[in-house]
Amino acid sequence: MGAFLFVFPAGAASQKVRAEDVLAKHLESIGTSEARTAVSSRVAVGDGTAKFVSIKDQTVQGRVVFASEGNKNFIGMKMNSTLYPGERFVYDGKHSSVAAVTANSRSVLGNFVQSNSMLLESGLLGGTLSTAWPLYNLEASKGKLSLNGTKKIDGREVYILVYTSNRGADVDVTLCFDKETFRHVRTEYKRTSSAGIGARPEDSTRFSESRIKLVEDFSEFKTENHVTFPQKYRINYLVSGQTGTTEVEWNFVLREFAFNQKLDPSTFEVGQNTK
Q: CA angle 100-103-106, nearest 5°?
């Protein structure tokens, strides 16, 4: 991988660890180069919950399925609720689609992924659970990394890498790697929408900007088929703005993994709403 793929902030030259160092160690934490390239497709299945924190902590049970083949990616959730039956995110290598939840309406998570399709099309969503994970090949994924120091997550220090893509996106992406193991433990997506403008100047004072934060957490790593992946997957979606605050949290435990299976082509069929 050429060094041109990395962008360094001022003073980075004096730092002991560079962006490409973190990347190299991260890839090693997954498995050897031979082990990683030997995996052409991957499936992970687990059980868990979706908790609507801002709606009296309503919780529904369900399952999640991750399926990927090369840069094709599928993430599906099936929940035991008529109001929230689940999610379906698909990228077929050229187009992406996000399924409606009910009555042609997407969930808050679905709306965010649809409006920021780079998350799905670049392979970011789902982290190392997917063969489409962009850090496997930054040049092909059109991504760049820059080191942005360290911070603590749940008492453990992590390296912070900023991810940018020339695919174009109105969202800030940071990737977090455990300082000791270099495993990818978190991705944070942040987006701020400007406050609205009223018909009259005095009306504009009643508008406020909208802030969206989506966090993916990965933990409880296990090695199978000579590669290491997380067994616990958590998503937290939080938006605050003019209409109040909405928060939803998903927690899944992955118990079944399969590698190099021939996946049905219909797995990656996009819906009518493509991009």
A: 30
> Which phi and psi angles does 56 have, rounded to 5°?
55, 35
pTM for the model stands at 0.87
**Residues composing the chain:** 275
Among candidates 18, 14, 12, which has minimal Cα distance to 159?
A: 18
Neighbouring C-beta atoms of residue 190, cutoff 10 Å: 13
- Domain borders along the chain are 3-253
One-letter amino acid of 99: A
DSSP the chain: --GGGB---TTGGGSSS-HHHHHHHHHHHH--HHHHHT--EEEEEEEEEEEETTTTTEEEEEEEEEEEETTEEEEEEEES-SS--EEEEEE-SS-EEE--SBTTB--HHHHHHHHTTHHHHTT-TTGGGSTT-GGG-HHHHTEEEEEEEEEEETTEEEEEEEEEETT--SSEEEEEEETTT--EEEEEEEEEEPPP--SSHHHHTT---EEEEEEEEEEEEEEETTEEEEEEEEEEEEEEETTEEEEEEEEEEEEEEEES----GGGG---SS--
- pLDDT one-digit tens code per residue, 222-262: 999 999 999 999 999 999 876 789 999 999 999 999 999 99
Angle value at C-alpha 77, between 73 and 78, nearest 5 degrees: 140
Give the residue carrying structure tokens 């993430």.
75
Residue 133 has pLDDT above 50, yes or no: yes
At 46, the amino acid letter reads G
With CA atoms as reference, report the closest residue to 224 among 45, 99, 57, 64: 45
CATH code of the region 3-253: 2.50.20
